[in-house]
Amino acid sequence: MDYVFMTDASCDLSAAMVEEIGVQVLPMEFEIENNRYLHYPDCRMMKLDEFYTKTKSGAAVKTTQINFNNFTTYFENYLRAGKDIIYTGIPTGLSGTYNTCLIAVKELEEKYPNRRIIVIDSLCDSAGLGLLIYLAGKKYKSGATIDELAKFIKDTRLKICHWFVVDDLDQLKRGGRISAVTATFGKALQIKPLISVDNEGHLVNVGKIRGKSNVNAALIEHLKRDGQNLKKTPVFIAHADNPEGAKELKKEIKSFCKDIQICEIGPVIGAHVGSGMLALVFIGERNLKA
Fold first, then answer.
1. How many other C-beta atoms are found inside a 10 Å radius of the C-beta of residue 206?
2. Among candidates 101, 79, 72, 111, which has minimal Cα distance to 3?
3. Cα 132 to the chain's mean position, in Å?
4. Angle formed by the axes of helices 215-226 and 243-253, to 10°?
5. What are the residues whose beta carbons fall under 8 Å from the beta carbon of 35, sequence distance 6 or more?
6. Does the reported pTM lie above 0.85?
7. pLDDT per residue rounded down to tens, the chain (290 residues)
8. Exposure on the CB side of residue 10, measured as CA atoms within 13 A
């Protein structure tokens, strides 16, 4: 290929899936217990079970966007080798990474005027970005041109539907996303936030689910309501330290979904949603009604 397809580690694709589609994944930094780590798809610097063990014990986590110098270094390795680049990663609705990337690209375009760098706002988050990258990667591996791939990403990104149920209200409280009072009452009443992603890539709290026994039913209701071509397109189940929940959800949807992939949420997103989160991501019509 005369170009490189790139994303970042917020996509939460496994190392095997990354290898399957040939995408290059830029690592992202997180800090826990005053130590800094880079998250890669193979979790080489910290395994996910260790990460979630620490967060459940109350360890504070900070995440950091990819900075200007890192973008310049990552991109220049390929530009210098005569490769063009197409990059889509964490959306502007969640991070300043995209805008930092554009600043780096402007400088690189002046230095490498004969090379093309296409940057696309994914408008997708976590496993939703992962599904977009996975589908685009299939096109990339099949020999799509850089312009064909860019068009596919732009045409597909708003068809990615995200539904997340957050279990760890203490983590949301620590991150400043809910108040201490809300967390206390939410735990007492077993209320779990139902979260989706809007057309600008923002996380949106669209409803509440009472009781763990109702989580799968709520997710499946949205899958059936909004999903399209479920027998022909992949469905991603994503979880944060909740493998049993993911397996059970897979059992419940396998009769009407052909290709079901289970993904683990990494530290970049897990720092904010906490342990226990469960999500369904699929192709369909974005609908923010609970």
1. 18
2. 79
3. 9
4. 50
5. none
6. yes
7. 799 999 999 999 999 999 999 999 999 999 999 999 999 999 999 999 999 999 888 888 999 999 999 999 999 999 999 999 999 999 988 888 999 999 999 999 999 999 999 999 999 999 999 999 999 999 999 999 999 999 999 999 999 999 999 886 665 555 544 444 344 334 444 678 888 999 999 888 888 888 778 999 999 999 999 999 999 999 999 999 999 999 999 999 999 998 999 999 999 999 888 889 999 999 999 999 87
8. 27
Distance in angstroms (rounded) separating the CA atoms of residues 262 and 243 = 9
Q: What is the DSSP annotation of the chain? A: --EEEEEEGGG---HHHHHHHT-EEE-EEEEETTEEEEE-TT--SS-HHHHHHHHHTT--EEEEPPPHHHHHHHHHHHHTTT-EEEEEES-TTT-SHHHHHHHHHHHHHHH-TTS-EEEEE----THHHHHHHHHHHHHHHTT--HHHHHHHHHHHGGGEEEEEE---HHHHHHTTSS-HHHHHHHHHTTEEEEEEE-TTS-EEEEEEEESGGGHHHHHHHHHHHHB--TTTS-EEEEESS-HHHHHHHHHHHTTT-S-EEEEE--HHHHHHH-TT-EEEEEEB------
* Spatial contact of 220 and 251, defined as CB atoms under 8 Å apart: no
Q: What is the spatial distance between Cα 20 and Cα 8, in angstroms, rounded to a whole number?
A: 16
What does the block give as tokens for 33?
A: 């217990």
Mention every residue, 6+ apart, whose C-beta is less than 8 A from residue 270.
48, 51, 52, 55, 240, 241, 277
